[in-house]
């Protein structure tokens, strides 16, 4: 039971961190192009970071 809970929490954290890293990579690659697209990635990064915090 405890092991399953830890496994689920670990999976959720890895999923969110993978998402954050992916959006950070996209933002880095698009930094000198479309400003609106970069702003979107920043919003997603902020939302995913808040999910980790809460």
Tally of helical segments: 2
Q: How helical, in percent, are the residues?
A: over 70%
> Rough shape?
elongated
The major beta sheet can be summarized as: none
- For the secondary structure, the number of strands is 0
Distance between the termini: 23 Å
Mean pLDDT: 85
Residue windows where pLDDT falls under 50 for at least 5 positions: none
Task: Name the beta content range.
Answer: under 5%
- Tell me the structural class: mainly alpha
SSE arrangement, N to C: HH
Radius of gyration: 14 Å
The number of domains is 1
EC number: 2.7.13.3
Enzyme class: transferase
InterPro entries: HisK_dim/P_dom (IPR003661), HisK_dim/P_sf (IPR036097)
Catalytic activity: ATP + protein L-histidine = ADP + protein N-phospho-L-histidine
